[in-house]
Design brief:
Layout lengths: L10 E5 L4 H12 L3 E5 L3 H11 L6 E3 L10 H12 L4 E4 L14 H29 L3 E6 L12 H21 L4 E8 L8 H4 L2 H10 L8 H12 L10 E4 L8
Parallel strand pairs: 1-2, 1-4, 2-3, 4-5, 5-6, 6-7
Helix pairs in contact: 1-8, 3-4, 4-5
The structure holds D-gluconic acid.
The site of D-gluconic acid has 14 residues, from loops.
Length: 255
């Protein structure tokens, strides 16, 4: 029964895998037996992550790519398959934020945030699903949403809109692809200690607020997200699709 949580023989493509939540999930999936394809813009960081993960004994590939180039995603994805095989797990963990009061947010910052956090996720899900549908194969998609899929705070309009979209896109794709055996879910992290939140953690007032506002009293870690992701990638979640699972330390359970 517990082997249902294993990922042996699976191939996971993970974006944002050079750091933070994406790297944490890559570590968890490799430990559960999956081979992994790591995707990020920064080639040096990606190579370092791949080098570390190869110690797990799994096949690990580094596939540098700039997800802002959304029109190039289909051809890039197709180029990976002959080299590495056809992924049956997709983790969309890449994400950016451009914090500013809504009245000051530039159109470029809005567009870049929506492009990376939402449009690229849709296009990559489409490329992933097309391959599996053509092969009559099943698969699992895990999108990384956010507390801001359900709530928000000042200066985060673009990020909040993108993560709200991720919550609903997850459900839409789950319903479109349920009859193809492609299950689509999202993990919505609370405040996690990553590079993206570093400016907030180093702000003593913000740090104290997060620790007070989070019922479990701490910032989350990428490892807190890794095992829920392994669960959603594994056979243990074969009746779970279209769900947004909040891994937020209890944040949204209280006011
Ligand atoms: C912020 C943070 C949040 C977190 C996370 C919370 O500016 O408040 O960056 O957006 O990154 O998404 O779930």
């Amino acid at each position: 029964m517990m082997d249902q949580f294993r990922l042996d023989g699976r191939l996971a493509l993970i974006t944002g895998a050079n750091k933070g939540i994406g790297l944490g999930i890559a570590r968890g999936m490799a430990a559960a037996g999956a081979d992994v394809i790591l995707v990020a813009r920064n080639r040096d960081e990606l190579d370092a992550a791949a080098g570390e993960l190869r110690q797990s004994g799994r096949r690990v590939a580094a596939a540098p790519f700039d997800l802002r180039q959304t029109a190039e995603i289909p051809a890039w994805y197709e180029s990976l398959v002959p080299q590495h095989g056809c992924p049956d797990i997709l983790v969309n963990a890449a994400g950016i934020t451009r914090r500013a009061p809504a009245e000051e947010l530039t159109l470029d910052d809005w567009n870049e945030t929506i492009t990376v956090n939402l449009t690229a996720v849709f296009v990559l899900c489409q490329a992933f699903a097309r391959r599996l549908i053509a092969a009559g194969a099943k698969g699992k998609i895990i999108n990384i949403a956010s507390l801001m899929t359900a709530a928000t705070r000042r200066t985060t309009a673009a990020y909040t809109a993108s993560k709200g979209g991720i919550g609903q896109l997850t459900k839409a794709l789950a319903i479109d692809w349920a009859d193809r055996g492609i299950l689509v879910n999202a993990i919505a992290p609370g405040y996690i200690a990553t590079r993206l939140t570093e400016p907030l953690r180093t702000d003593p007032e913000f740090d104290a607020w997060v620790k007070k506002r989070t019922p479990l009293g701490r910032w989350g870690t990428p490892e807190d997200i890794a095992l829920p992701a392994v669960f959603l990638a594994s056979a243990a979640s074969d009746f779970v699709t279209g769900q947004v699972i909040f891994v937020d330390g209890g944040w949204l359970a209280t006011f």
